[in-house]
Amino acid sequence: MGTGLLGALASSLLVDDFEVKVTSKKNLLNPALRRLRFLGTGPLRLLVAKEFVDLIRSGTMKKMTVSYSVPLLVLLGMAWLIDFAEAPIPINLLSYAPFLGFFGFNFYSWLTILDDPDFMNGLPLRVPQLLRAKVVVYFLATSWISLIFFVLMAWRLDEWAALPTGLAVMFANSIYIVALTAFLMGLRPNKAIFDGRIMFWFWLGTVLPLLGLFLLSFTQGDVELYGNWWERVSEDGLSATATAYDLEMVRGGYLGILSISGGLLVGSAVLWALIDVRWGKKPFEN
Fold first, then answer.
1. Please, how many CA atoms are within 13 Å of residue 259, restricted to the half-sphere of its CB?
2. What is the value of pTM for the model shown?
3. In the Cβ-directed half-sphere of 240, how many Cα atoms lie within 13 Å?
4. Which of 58, 100, 134, 154 is within CB 3.0–4.6 Å of 163 for a Cys-Cys bond?
5. What is the CA radius of gyration of the chain?
């Protein structure tokens, strides 16, 4: 009896009115598909559009853009704060280019944790298709940031003549690093970094070509500056400067820089094709 009375009292206190909260999202997929016409009509275009919608809807695009831009802004700030002309080491525009590709690994790892891809096992899709889509998303989402940074750095250092070569190095390096990451680590880069075997091949595939690029870029092609600088430092200490500059060596060095960059692009194409071999039969998992 008491329970019934309490129930009746409680029901009488309930308000008949209630609030309905409606949330709506505008269609982002179709506009994205229209902007990606250059990717053709295959599944790559649809997957890239889907990835961009996920990035925008989750708010991750802003976070990723900031995380990619901050290191570049720090480098640009260093150009403002340090008088490079008096440094004993010849820092120049080309010396920045090889570094930009390393930021791509962090950006790619963000792309793999947006959504659990297990549901794609029930779709007519394969892991290599999704990996290629993520590489394309990385390039489209970051290339404009890198381009702006490099133009600003060329303006700050007043090295417009080195801008075309620097852009070639930067883009070739960026594409290669992410293609190598996708090939070796697939959809689980945050787990693969703890795999010693994978990281050995990643280290081997990055250090060897990028070290050559850095050594050539650091002196704008004239590797004799290293020997000259070492001799001067031995005699005059850290206040020494390197003055020898052989134009023929510079031309050869620039050719070496472009050759390595071309090799990285060829390597990226090979890795792009080998993704099918490595991940073609793997299930979607993270």
1. 9
2. 0.76
3. 17
4. 154
5. 26
